[in-house]
Each structure stands twice: as C-alpha cells, then as structure tokens.
Amino acid sequence: MPSKSPSWFANVNPNVFLSTVIIIAIFLAVVILAPNSFELITHNLNQWITDSFSWFYVLSVAIFLILLIYIALSSMGKIKLGPEHSVPIYSNGSWFAMLFTAGMGIGLMFFGVAEPVMHYASPPSGQGQTLEAAQQAMRITFFHWGLHAWAIYSVVGLALAYFAYRHNLPLKVRSALYPLIGQKIYGPIGDAVDTFATIGTIFGVATTLGFGVTQINSGLNYLFGIEQSSTIQVLLIVVVSIMASLSVFLGLDKGIKRLSELNLLLAVILLLFVFFVSSPIYLLQTTIQNAGQYVSNLFTMTFNLYAYQSNGWIGGWTIVYWAWWISWSPFVGMFIARVSKGRTIREFIVGVLLIPSGFTLIWMGFMGNAAFYSILQKGNDSLIAAVQRDSSVALFEFLYTLPLSAVTSLVATLLVVLFFVTSADSGALVTDYLTSKSENSPIWQRLFWTMIMALLAIVLLLVGGLGALQSATMISALPFTFIMLFMCWGLVKALRLDVIKMNALQDARITPRAIHNPRSWQQRLGLIMHYPHSEDEIKQYISTHVLSAFQNVEKELKRRQLQVSIDHIEGGLQLSVDHDNEINFIYQVVAQKTLPPSFMAESNPDETQYYQAEVFLREGGQNYDVMDWTLDDLLQDIIDQYERHLYFLSLVRTPE
After folding, report:
1. How many domains does the chain have?
2. Do residues 401 and 117 lie in contact, with contact meaning Cβ atoms separated by under 8 Å?
3. H or E element: which one contains 51?
4. 619, 644 contact by CB (below 8 A)
5. DSSP at 374
6. How far apart are CA 408 and CA 460, in angstroms?
7. 445 within some domain
8. pLDDT in tens, 389-413
9. Considering the domain boundaries, does residue 171 fall inside one?
10. What is the mean pLDDT of residues 50-75?
11. Claim to verify: residue 245 and residue 191 sit in the same structural domain
12. Half-sphere exposure of residue 296: CA atoms within 13 angstroms, side-chain side
C-alpha cells in the first residue's frame, strides 16, 4: 500500500501559528475598521507604558548587560554552544557580516545622520545647537546603538543557542524556560511564550520595514524625482518583499549569507568615502573623544530616567529604542544562535557585544561627526532644518554636501534595499521556526510570513505612519521583556549546573588502583555503589583502617626525620606533618552527614541519616568518600595529597 504524502500543513504548530494569525487579524481589523480609535488607543496605551514602565525597561536592559558580563568573566564562559568537540560553522568574517546586517542594517542607514542632528537641535538637557549639545548628541547616539542594544540580542541568542545545541532542545524561545518549568515547555505555556515572541518579531520587523521604505522613497526622490507618498511606499514594500521571497528560495547560506557579505562590503565602502572626503583628522579626534565619553558615562546613562525633568524625552527616544530592540530580539537572537553553533559562550558574548557594537560606533561616529563638521565648520544649517522636517532624508541631504553625491546616494539607496531584503527574509525565517514543529518546513510558510509582515507594514504606514509602527512595537515588547527576565533566570540556573558537572568531571577523586591486589571492574563497581552507611559504620572504619594507614605513614615519615602527629578530632582522625617555618600538611578523615542518591538500590527509606568518610585537607573538605577503601588505597591517597602539598611549597618557597 503506498504511503500517504504529508499534508501541506503537517509541519505547522497550530497553537502558535493560528494564535499569531488570529491576533494579527484582529489587530488589522481594528486598524482598518476604526483607524481613529486605533490611533487613540495606541497613543494612550503607549503613553501609559512610557509613564508606568520606563523604569522597568531601563532596569531590565541593565540586568541583561550586567548578567552577560558576569557570565563571560566566570567559568560559565568556557562552555561551548554545542558538544565539546564542536567547531564554529562559519568563519569569523561571515559570522560578523551576518550579525551586523541582521541586527541593525536599516537602522544605521536611517539614523546614522538623523539621530545626532536631532539630538543636537533638541537635546534632553541644556541648550541646543551648541558644542556641548553636539557632544551630548553623539554620546546619546552611542548609548542607543551600542552595548545595550546588543546585550538584548545576546541574551536571547545565547539562551537559544545554549539550550538548542548543548541540550538538544528545540531552537525556540520556549526552550530557555526548561530549567524553570521542565516538560511544560511543550504545552500551553511554551506555546504562549513562542506566540509572544512571534508577535514581537513581526511588529519589530514591520517597524523596520516602515523606516526602510521611507528612506528608499527619499533616495529615489533625490535621484530620480519620484514623489514621496504613501502609494510609492506601498509599492516599494511589495517590490522589496518579492525580492525577499526570492532570497527565501536560496536559503540561509546562499541567500542571507551572501547578501549580508555584500551589504557589509558596500557599507564599508560608503563609510570610507565619507571618512576621506570629509575631514579624516576631525572625524578621528571627535569619534575617539565621543567613545571615551560614552564609556566613562556608561553607568550613569544606563540608569538615567530623566526623572527630575519630566519633559517626555526618554519616552520618545530611549524607551522606544529599548522596546524596539526587545521586539527584535527573538528575530535577531534566533538568527545569531543559528550561525553561532560551536563557539564558546565567552567567544559568543565578546563577539556579539563588541564586534557589531564597535562597527556601529564607528559608523555613527563618522557619519554623525561628518554631519556636525558640515554644520559647525561649513555652516550648512540647512541640514538641521531638513532633518527636522523629514528624518528619512537626513542621509541624502548630508551626502548632497559631499562630492559625487549622485553616486553615493545611489549606493546608499541600494544598501537600504539590500538591508530591507535581508531583514524581511531573516524575519520570515525566524517567524517560521517559531510557528513550526521542526526546522524543515516548506517554502510556503516563510513566504506566508513575508507577506504578513509586508501587509502589516503597509496598513500601519497608511493609518498612522511611523508613529503607529513605533507604538505597536512598544506595546508588543512589554510582555516579552518579562519573558526575557525568566529566560535569564533559566539560563543561569542551567549554566551553573553545567559548570558543576564540568568541574566534577575534572576534579572528581576516583578510587585508587590497588597495587598488590588489583580489583576487578565488578569489585570496583560494587565498592562505589555500596551506599549508604550509618555513623557507627563510618566511625568504626576510621578507628581501624584509617588509623592503621595514618600509623604506617607516621612511622615512615618519622624515619625520615619529620615531625608527625595523629590526633583525634570531632568525628574522625587527623594526620599532621610539621614543616617548621613552612605550611604544615594536614590530612583528615571525618564522618560527615550526607544525602544518599535516590537511585541507589541499597538505600533504606526508613533511615533518615547517612554518613560518609570524607577527606579534609588544610583548605577544607575535598568532597570524596574513602569508606571501604583498602589500606593500600588509603596510603596511596595520602601520598598523592602529600605530593601535591610539597609541589605547592616548592612554588611558593623563596630563597633567603
């Protein structure tokens, strides 16, 4: 009987897929049928979130950055994102290119000139259009696009990569909660988490597409005189979405990877052109100074809520950015997780935090300061007015002040288009993963999400422009911020267990191999499985076998003219070797209360207290049990520990 071919929706996770589609459909219905009500609701809801949760966004993003630094500097950083034998699947160059273009491509093109100029004209504090305002503008721009943004991406990417490649869980946001809720990640809770992540991703990408088409429209207006209108922008979304669909057919390696490398190459060419035709020395001096001011003020800016000057600035800038990055984090996080398999956690954090942030700061520093050079040194105040009138024309108005403006504007427009394509394609890829049962989904699913994102961007642009897009992003990001905090909790919990296991494999003390009467492997297994023991059994063993071993060592060391003593201590015995002016050697065996493992067949549930014969050195307990070791075993262990002690003394000994 021939096997039935799988249905076209066999790989769809219906709970996540349908709930996401229903929520977006309801949202679009409200937008289309009651646009005025939608605008009022989103405005009020956005204002409420800004007023009530600004502190929460600021504190959460600070926690993400501090946590990543702690993980990278601790022993957790040694853990690999995959099995111990795994190696990175992409070269450093390709890895960096994909990180950069997936994370902030369109945003850098849109805000590279616009944001510094807007902060310069209207700073959060102080007088605008001054030298102090210019420095403050660059510091704030670095803050919005630097470490904090990539910390948000890193948290999600690290959690996804760790649980997927280290613990073989699905590459989904729900997997990061496994240490907290266990198998429930496969139930309604996991579905809800992935649904929130999917909706946040869709709104975040739609917002970026909105910024992208307005800037493409501005570039085409400058180059070819094409009018700037909603109709043209809708057509641009359709055209670029078709291009993204073509990239879908090529897949990750042929599509996104090659486009990412081309994007990076063109971006570097444009940046170098601006650097050399503007004022290289001025750009180097100001960018380095800006970077120093950014680093020195990083802690203050992290927690600055402008609480004593309620002018609404933080709600229109910093909180919008944090919400934007958070809404993008499932998308960018999953994408960088997929391309980061085989790297260590420390390498991942350092790479994702510093490399894209460094390039971003260079881009913002050169573009922003080149704009300031044009304004402050050449008196091109018209650039300020143009940016205030329409921020999407900022880059093209700036390039107009430089030589070869037609060529550079064409390159800039092409860059925005390519960034647009990679963002749409990557967003559809990630959304497809979140709403599918497995990664091997049919092409139609990614094409479907590409169309949904395009439709959402079109509707929101027609209804409320970029303001509506930003409001939708702010609203969708709030619930996912709570999920990210739980992800951090689960990640740290799992990493600590991994570190304990890693240390245990390296440091565990195994039973010494008896020399005169070697044990068979069955005897060794019986010895380590003989568990648990009562306190009387342990004390009896210490008073006979351990005492006999100590006496043998004492006799031999005294023969070698060393001062040795055996003393009874609470719960056991102590062997001491006096080294005069150097640190003495101490070896103790003490009856220590312990919990027996539940899997031991000999465990007696009626008994409540069990003990082990634990070894203590001068530094404290060594976490291994010598109960039932033979006399030869004990002697070998004492000599092993004494040899380590003598080696330590040789390292710290100083000549007189």
Report:
1. 2
2. no
3. helix 35-73
4. no
5. I
6. 30
7. no
8. 878 788 888 998 899 988 998 888 8
9. yes
10. 94
11. yes
12. 7
pTM of the model: 0.79
Residues 166 and 216 in one domain: yes
Radius of gyration of the chain (CA): 32
Task: Please give the share of the chain, as a percent, with pLDDT higher than 70.
Answer: 88
Beta strands across the sheet bearing 620-625? 563-569, 572-578, 585-594, 610-617, 620-625
What domain range is 293 assigned to? 14-437+493-501
**In terms of domains, do 325 and 353 share one?**
yes
Is position 462 within any domain? Answer: no
Q: 497 and 558: one domain?
A: no
Round to whole Å and give the CA distance between 408 and 195.
41
Reported as a single tens digit per residue, the pLDDT across 207-255 is 777 777 887 888 888 777 888 888 888 888 888 888 777 766 665 555 5
**211 and 286 housed in the same domain:** yes
Contact indicator for 368, 138 with CB cutoff of 8 Å: yes
Tokens found for residue 113: 């000139």
The Cα 101–Cα 256 span in angstroms is: 9
Three-state SS for 411-430 is HHHHHHHHHHHHHHHHHHHH
Q: Is residue 525 part of a domain?
A: yes
Residue 1 has pLDDT above 50, yes or no: no
Whether 184 and 329 share a structural domain:
yes
Say yes or no: 556 and 497 in one domain. no
Segment of 25-34, 133-142, 262-271, 590-599 carrying the highest mean pLDDT: 133-142
430 and 530 part of one domain: no
